[in-house]
Amino acid sequence: MNQWLVAATVLLVALLPCAALCVRGGVLDGLVGLELAGVITTVVLLLIAEGFQRQPFVDLALVFAVLQFGGSLAFARMLERRL
Questions:
Q1: Domains of the chain: which residue ranges?
Q2: How many CB atoms lie within 10 A of CB 32?
Q3: Could you report the per-residue pLDDT of 47-58, keeping only the tens digit for each?
Q4: Which of 32, 42, 44, 47 has a CA 20 to 30 Å removed from the CA of 57?
């Protein structure tokens, strides 16, 4: 196991507070937790790509980042009606 995979494992543990914030927090807190979880997941995929020397994980991370941004905008638009 190299340093890239160790860093990915540490960041995967950092997803637990984001999940707790999404479950236990309010609506806006959940949106913030979802955004942070998306960023962490993108970085984890990039670290895994470097750790295993596999290019498809980089492509997956880039696609995930773009889709996560669009999804969060749609989610924020839905929340706008509630607030």
A1: 3-82
A2: 15
A3: 999 999 998 889
A4: 32
